[in-house]
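Known limitations

Structure tokens in this collection are predictions and should be treated as such. Users comparing against experimental data should check residue numbering before alignment. To illustrate the layout, the record for Translation initiation factor 1A is reproduced below. The input appears on top and the generated tokens appear beneath it.
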Amino acid sequence: MSDNEGRKDLRMPDDDEVFAVVLDMLGANRVRVRCMDGQTRTARIPGKMQKRIWIREDDVVLVEPWDWQDEKADITWRYDKQEADQLKEEGHIQE
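Generated tokens:
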């Protein structure tokens, strides 16, 4: 277990979700994200997350792209700093 010490089981993306990094805050509960599928999208922070979870630039998040408009998405999850570092170490997120 010495190799995996401190490793947590993290929430991984569902079929329709992708990892993304927050590029900048647009206001009105919207952020610009760079998704790991190569797209840059405008993502919406849903109402249930707005008051509980603070999202800042360079945060790693899970987004669910809209099926009817590919340049938009909803944020479904935010990883904290340690979780984000772990995802980068394991190669899920490219800088």
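For this record: The chain has one domain: 18-89. The chain has a mean pLDDT of 85. Please report discrepancies through the issue tracker.
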